[in-house]
Amino acid sequence: xxxxxxxxxxxxxxxxxxxxxxxxxxxxxxxxxxxxxxxxxxxxxxxxxxxxxxxxxxxxxxxxxxxxxxxxxxxxxxxxxxxxxxxxxxxxxxxxxxxxxxxxxxxxxxxxxxxxxxxxxxxxxxxxxxxxxxxxxxxxxxxxxxxxxxxxxxxxxxxxxxxxxxxxxxxxxxxxxxxxxxxxxxxxxxxxxxxxxxxxxxxxxxxxxxxxxxxxxxxxxxxxxxxxxxxxxxxxxxxxxxxxxxxxxxxxxxxxxxxxxxxxxxxxxxxxxxxxxxxxxxxxxxxxxxxxxxxxxxxxxxxxxxxxxxxxxxxxxxxxxxxxxxxxxxxxxxxxxxxxxxxxxxxxxxxxxxxxxxxxxxxxxxxxxxxxxxxxxxxxxxxxxxxxxxxxxxxxxxxxxxxxxxxxxxxxxxxxxxxxxxxxxxxxxxxxxxxxxxxxxxxxxxxxxxxxxxxxxxxxxxxxxxxxxxxxxxxxxxxxxxxxxxxxxxxxxxxxxxxxxxxxxxxxxxxxxxxxxxxxxxxxxxxxxxxxxxxxxxxxxxxxxxxxxxxxxxxxxxxxxxxxxxxxxxxxxxxxxxxxxxxxxxxxxxxxxxxxxxxxxxxxxxxxxxxxxxxxxxxxxxxxxxxxxxxxxxxxxxxxxxxxxxxxxxxxxxxxxxxxxxxxxxxxxxxxxxxxxxxxxxxxxxxxxxxxxxxxxxxxxxxxxxxxxxxxxxxxxxxxxxxxxxxxxxxxxxxxxxxxxxxxxxxxxxxxxxxxxxxxxxxxxxxxxxxxxxxxxxxxxxxxxxxxxxxxxxxxxxxxxxxxxxxxxxxxxxxxxxxxxxxxxxxxxxxxxxxxxxxxxxxxxxx
Length: 847
Description:
- By secondary structure, this protein is α+β, with helices and mostly antiparallel strands.
- The chain has 4 domains: 8-152 and 459-613, Rossmann fold, CATH 3.40.50.150; 173-445, no CATH class; 614-759, no CATH class; 760-847, no CATH class.
- This is site-specific DNA-methyltransferase (adenine-specific).
C-alpha cells in the first residue's frame, strides 16, 4: 500500500463561512440549476470546498483556500462565491499543489452525480471527472451542464438559441389562437377547479382549496360563489370576506346542500369525467395583474382544443407524440395524482396537452433541419436543450401547478415534493412574459447554458456514464458524492414527470430506455423498502471501496437526521473497509423551524471523509479510550480556534474520534458490543466538559441540570431538535423528562419536528430550588424585581456558596451582549464587586 498523505479537508474546513455562503447561494443560485429541475442539488460553494479540500495538501494556506472558494470575491463584488473563477494561470499552479498529495493530477468520480454540482466544480478546479447516475434524466442534465458546454463553447449557445426561437415562433403561430386576449390585454394565466357531482343532490360542485385570488397587504381579491336554481354563479370581490374552500384533505363539501363528498366519489368522478370549471383568468394590466371571469371566447377557444385532440388522438398515439404510460406505483403516496388521473398525459388539460404535442412536433421538424446541417452528436446536443422545454414547462403548466395568492405567480408542481393533484390549479399562457411561460423557460435554459460555457469551456474533461453504482469498475483516486438517502426523494418515479415527454422529443436522435427502478437507491417504489435501501447502500459502499485506489480518499455527503442515521451510515462504511478521517457539518438550507435554528441543528449535510483501512483488527473501547480522549482534545483545540461551536463542534469532534475508532474493523466493550451511537454519546460528554471548562472555574461538582443548561446556553442551543437535546442529556447521565418536570425546558412540536426550548429566568416559573441553576435564576429574578438588596437576601437563603453562584454568573458573560441573562448577570457581578471582561472578551480564559 502506497504512502498516505493527508489532504486539507482532513484537517481544515471553514465550516461557518461555507455554511453562510451556501444558504445565500440557495436564494440566488447558479443559473445551471434553473436549466432543468432536479432535487437536492448541493450548492456549488459546498461542492467546491469538498473538491479543493480533497485535492490540496494538509499544509495548504487556509487563507488562500478561502480565497479560492471565492469569499474575497464576495466581499469585493457583492456577488455570490459561485461566480468566482480561479484564473487559468492559478489553476496550473494549483496542479503542482495537487501533485504534492497525488503525484499526478487525479480524476474525481461522482457515482451519484445527479444535477452535477460536484463534477462541475471538479472541472472548474482543472481536473478530469467521471459523472455517473442511474437515472436517465440526471444523465441528460449532466450532458447539458457538463459535457456539451465544455466541448462546443459559444457556437453551441448560438445554435441552441436559434432552435429555441424557431420552436417558440412556430408553436406560437399554431397555438396562439387558443389563448384569446381580454379587451386587448394579454391573459397570463387561467385558474381552474375540478368539478365533481354531489352524491346527495347531484349538483356539479367545484373543488376549491380557497376562493382567494390574491391575498397580501396591498391587494385582496376573491371569488364569491353563489348557487341559484341549480346554477353556479361566480362574482369577483375585493377586500375581506372570502368563503371557506370546498375541498380539504381529499374531502369535498357541496356548495348547494353542504353535504360531504367522500374522496372515493371524487376519485371516481375525476377518473371518469375529467370535468373542470374555469374559475377566472389573470390579465396583465397597466398596474399589474388583474382578475376577470371567463368569457365566451375563453370557453370556445378551450373547446376547440378538445375538438382537435379528439379528432387526431388516434394519430397522436400512433406516431407517439404523446406519452401513454401510466404513472408509476408509489408506496409512499407521493404521486397521489395517479389515484385520480392514472396516466401522465392526463396531468395536462386539453389545451396544455395540445400545446405539448405541438411542441413535440415542432422539435421533430427542427430535428430534420439539424440532421441536414450537423454531425449526430452535435444534433443530439442541441436537441437535448430543446427537450428541456418539457422538463421546465410541465413543472409550471399542469394540473399539479397552483396559483400563489400572496405573490401572484405560478407555484411549480415540484414545490410540493411530489406529483400532487391540485383541486384548484393554474394554467399558463405560454406566449407571454411571466412565471413558467415559454419565454421565461427559454431564458432559463439559455442563461444556464451560458453560465456553463463561461465556467467550463476548455477546463477539465468530463465523462458521463449511465448506470448503477454497482457496475463501476475503473480504479479511481478520489470519490466525492452526495448519494440518495432513504426516503428523501424517489428519483425514479418523480423524474418520469419530465422524462415521459423528453424521451419523445429526442426519439428522432436517440432511443432512450425507460427509467430503471430495480436498483434505484430510495424508499418509495413498490418493493423498495427500508431494508432494500440498507442493502443497496451497503453494496454501494462496498463498490466504492473496490474502485478506490489504496491511497485514495472518499468524501460522502450525508443528510444527518438522527443518531440511528449516523450509526447506519458509519457502520456501512466501516464494514466495507473504510475508516473515517474527518466529518464536517455544512448547513445548506435557510430554515424558519424553531426546532432546528442556528447552531442547534445537526440535521444539515455532513461531509464524511474516509480512506481505506490499512489493517483488520478488533479493539476494546476501554483499552483505547485514553488514546481517543487525547486525540480528541488536540482536535477540539483546533476546532475551537477555527470558530466551531454548538452542534458543529460536536459533529467535528465525532469525525476526529472516528479517525481513531474506524481504524478498527470491530470495536467492542467488556460490557457488550460497541455501537456508533455509544461513541457519539461519549464524544458529546467530552465536548460538554471541554466547553464548560473554558467558562467555569470548577465543573467537577456541577449538577446535571446546571451542566445541561450552561452547556446549551453557551453553545447557543436555546432551541434544538429532541435528538440533539437527548444526546446532550444522556452524555451527562441526565433525563430530559426530569428537566421538563423541573421547568428547565419545555417540549415543542412543529409538524413532524419535535424539539425542546430552554427556559431562562424571564420565562420560567421557579417554585423550587433543586439545582444550582434554579438558585441562580432565583437570584436573577429577584434582582430584576427588587434590586440588589433583595438579591442579597435571596443569596442568604440558598444552599450554594457565593463563589458557586459567581461561577455561573461569570459563564453567562460569554453570551451575546443583547442576551437578558448576560445583562442581568453583569449587573449582579458589578454589585458583588466582581470584575468582568473588557469589551470584546467573551470567556474567562481571555480575562
